[in-house]
Each structure stands twice: as structure tokens, then as C-alpha cells.
Amino acid sequence: MDRVQIVHENFLRRVGAQDFPDGGGITPGLDIEEATGLFRAQVLSRALDLQSRVMQKQGQGFYTIGSSGHEGMAAVAHALRPDDIAFLHYRDAAFQIARADQVDGQDMLRDMLLSFACSADDPTSGGRHKVLGSRALMIPPQTSTIASHLPKAVGAAHAIGLARRNPPEHGVLPRDGIAMCSFGDASANHSTSQGAINAACWTAVQGVPMPLLFVCEDNGIGISTKTPSGWIKASMSARPGLTYFEADGLDLFAAYASAKEAADFVRIHRKPAFLHLRTVRLYGHAGADVATSYLPKAEVEADEANDPLLHSARLLVAAGALSADDALSIYTQTLEKVAEVAQDIVTRPRLKTAHDVMASIIPPKRACAATNGPSAQDRRDILGNEIGQMDTPQPLSKIINWTLHDVMLAHPETLLMGEDVGRKGGVYGVTQKLQSRFGPARVIDTLLDEQSILGFAIGAAHNGFIPMPEIQFLAYLHNAEDQLRGEAATLPFFSNGQWTNPMVLRIAGLGYQKGFGGHFHNDNSLAVLRDIPGLIIACPSTGADAAMMLREAHRLAREEQRVVVFVEPIALYPMRDLLEAGDGGWMTTYPDPDRRISMQDIGVHGDGTDLAILTYGNGHYLSRQAQADLAGQGIAARVIDLRWLAPLAEDAIIDAIGDRPVLIVDECRRTGGQAEGLMALMAERGVARAARLTAEDSFIATGPAYAATLPSREGIVAAALDVLKT
Description:
By secondary structure, the protein is of the alpha/beta class.
């Protein structure tokens, strides 16, 4: 007999004999009728776990990481309000079921079975995954996350406070609401959770509202690796800025009392709290996991003897709310009902085509209030005499700065956040004066943790803000890339477009910084971004383009709910000259605030018919220099600036190339760079002659050799001549 059947038989036998596990008395605070309802939620969670395994054996179900042993989370749900946003651990079915009982019109039995079956009728994911989540229940969907949802919970909690003085148009979280996130004891050791908890504490000790409840469900093990006894309490109970609560998650009444105390503390004081909830894990980690293969049988049996359903039955019988027979009837009738509904669920349609699966990668557009942009008076009040400089050519960094001013003037829900973006104005001065002009609640200096910066942005977007986080250097993104890949970009996909987290992520990056920083500050790889479905990547090279593209990026986030990465070439921030010292050829004037560049608009420079040079970023700058050198040799080249790297404006690119041979100039590495995709496009569209000039597959050195592995003006000329010889 497997452990699932053993636990089932134990419940039937022990409740029938009133052979209950030892435990304390009834903790005051939870109404008996409410407790009975929570017991029903716990039983339904258990019944669904059992049915998921039946469905898997039949080939009709596709997920068996269950919630058995964690049913005490039903009490936590009851201690919160249904409008408190909840980011859930994957073992929290009982929480979702209990919350559904607080909201009219919910049918968790059917909805969760649809999720198990990956049915297209699943109201949360539309058949894409088994997820916990519900728009109606204020639960953003999560899959098998290992703490990656904690940073955005911190952001959502912070955004509740920010919205009190700056209510965003699309805000949804109540002024007195709190955020909650739950996770396992093993996940508590992950760097992401440690960073999120640290960020919450760091923020709170500075007096910034942080109404966030962390709930650690401690079953003592992570798959097969045990958590040291006492570790969670020792590591979490004395953190500055974090108030610690603990409870026995096996005891429905005690769990509710502690959860209510913790939630009330967070709601009243607007400070973070940590609820340490003791649980057990039944059946092993998932359907294929056999716990007795790595744990002594006696330990497995000890957990089974402490089944939380047995404890709930014990307490309810002791309180006179149920008889033992009543408890058994609830259990058996629930199992029967779940099995009955499952027979219909497995007949429901599933996704079949790539189109069906991909339909929710790009989120839906949303209605936004019309805006005419900032008024002339508002601009004068904020920018002062800088307005008079806008008609004179300026470098890239200055024009981006002015663009950020105009965007923030036009859209009060826009937030900037990142390390050093405020008082210092960014490492390169791009955000100078913004904090003094818009205040520290809109231009936010964060702690040094890229995961927290991006998580803050994701969570703030959940409450209607348009975040524009900054990552100081492209290489630093790698510390936090899963916040884009595993959270931001996947949320519309796993929620069937019901949940989104739009943002414009600004990253200073790419190569060609003279003598500074080596590969951590001269990172020329965008590969980690290129393969994320639904992500938009922009890379301007001139000031005018940057202004118009950044406005469009903001519009895409605000109106179309997209996640946009805006890569700003560091080496071009101060660039003034193009062909010779003092010519000012790379500076531009500031475009009128209503002008934008769409994703289908590429830059075309020159009508030359001999050659097309296809490039972007620093490559655009170098190619324009090479264009002049080639003209001196009688070769007329057209330079095409991609501007938008994903998705590519393929038709516009091919039209601009015409029948010219093509040289692709890509400052990213030969392996994984943009040139790979562009060469494939050339082949697919029948471009007869195409070659690429890329950076070498190398990191970048500091010192005089900083550009040795990168494309150069001279190298572009030589490569162009080679193309024309073929």
C-alpha cells in the first residue's frame, strides 16, 4: 500500500475510533461555525490532492505536487481579507479554497480540477499550467516557484503605501490592504527570499510603509534535504524591522489566532511581519517521490500520525461542532463529489495548437485616460531655463533626462527606482534632478539588489503604477534575470492575460567604455533577453531616437501592458562628435514631446545602392563613420539602424535592404548575438549576399585593449569591402 492510501485509511480508521493525536485545547478567536467551514476547505484540498493522482494515472491529469499536510493555510486565509493580495506557495490549495468561501460565485472544486486537467476552460491559466491563482480572489498565479514571487510581494506592499498619496489610474489594492506571500522552509534559504526579506526590513526601518506578511510553511524538509531544527526561528526571529510570530499549522484554531494577530499587526502598523507556521509534508514531495527512499519509515509515519485533518476533526469533535461520524461524512462525501465532477472535467477541451498556447504571451491592451502631455506651464515650472536649451543639439544622456522629466510630468503614476537614481542622479547623471523635482516617493533610491529592484517594479505594476526601474550595468542584470524570465514575462501567459506587470526597464549597457571596468561594466551580451517570449527590447543610439523610443516604450507599458527593456549604450551617453573632433555630428535637438518612434520604424541613413549596413547601438555610430570612409572610396552605403531588437521589424528591414548586399554589424558576441537571428532572416527572405561582423566570443578587457574584441570603424570598412568582393 502506498503512503497516499495509508494516510487515507488512517483518517477513516482513527476518526471512526476517535483515536485522535494529542494536542492542545481550543484557542479562542475562531467561531465554531467558521471553523467547520475551514475544515470543509481543508478536506476539499485533500480530496483534490487524491484526485490529482488518480487523474495522473489515467493520463488525464498533469500535476501532483499537493498541499497535504499544509491544510492549516486555510486558517491563514480566514485571517486575511479577500482583497489582500496573496502570492502563494505551491502547496496552498487550502488557502485558495478558504478564500474562495469569502467571495460569492466561486467554485474552487471545479476550477482546480480544470487546472489539474490542463483544460482550456481553466479560468486562471486557460489550460497552460496547473497554477494556484485567481483574479477574483486577488491571487496572482504562481507555478512551482522557489521564492521568486517574494520580491514582487515586497513591491506590491510598497505600492500600497505609495498609492495613498499618488493613486494610480489602474490601482486595485485597497488603502488599508496588506500583501501576503507564502513559501516553504527550504525556499527560505534561497537567495531570492533572503533578498526580499532583507529589502522589506531595509525599507521598514527607514519608516517607509511596508504592509507585508511573510508566511513560512515549515514542514522541515526540501524534497529530500532536511531543514536544521530551529533554523527558521533562529534566522528570522531577530531581524531588524521584522516582527516574528509563530503558530502550529496543525491546529486550526491556534493557526487562525496567530495569523490574525500577525495580519492585524501588519495592517495597523504598516510594517512587515513573519509568520512561522509548523506543518507536515504528507506523501513526499510529488507524485513520483517516495519519501521512505530517503527518510526513515518511522519519521514518515510520525508525520502521518500528525495529519492536520485528524487534528481539525479532534478539535471540532471536542468543541461539539461535529461528531466523529459527521467528520467522516464530510470527508467521504467530498471525495465522492470530487471524483464525480472529475469525470466531467476530463472531457473538457484542452489547448491543441501553437496559436492557442501562445495567445496570452502578449497581454491585452487596456483603456487609459486620454492625456495631452504636460502643459507648457508645468514644463516651465519643472525644467526652468533648461527649456531654452532644447533647441540646441545635446548628447544622448541629456535628452534621455529631459524625456524622463516629460514622461513623469504627463503620467503621475510613473515611478523611477534603482540604485543611485535619486540623489546622485545615476552613475552617468541620466536621472539628475528628477528626485529633487518629483520627490523621493516617485524617484526611489533602492538598496543594492537587482532582484529587489525588479521585484519592486513587478509588484508596483500590480497596483497600477508604471515602473521604470534602472539596472546600473547590463552585467548586473544576470543577478536578477529570472525576475524577467520567470515572473514578469510569464504572468500574462499563466493568467490567460488577466494579470500583467507592465514596466520599462532601463539598463545602461554594451561596450566601448574607454579604460573602465572590464566585463562587468562593458557587457556586450543581450542573449539572456532575446529568448524571453513577449519581451520588447529597445536600443537607441541617438538622442532624438532615444526620446521618441522611450516615450513609445512608456506607452507600450501603460496602454498595452508590455514589459519593455530599454538598453542605453553607455559609450554614447556623452558622445558629441561623429567624424572629427568638434563637428557635433552625433548630437541632436530634443524632439517635441508628442513625437514617438513605433516598433515598426527603423532608422535609414543614406540612399547608397552599393551596400546596406544593418546595425544598432554603438554599431550604428561606428557604421556611420565607416559609411563616410566608404564614400571616400566611391562606395555608397545605406546604414540601417534596427532601433528595436525584439520583436524585429522584419518587413521594414527587408524593404530597406532592397537588392543591396548586406553587412550586419553586431557589437554583441558572435555566439548568441543579434547577428545570428539577422543572418537567419536574410536566408529566409532570400537575401543573396549577407555577412556579419560581430564581437569575438570573449569578455572585455580593461585598459587600452578595451575595444580589441569589438567591431571597429576600420573593421567595418574592411568587412564591407569583403562583402562587395563576393
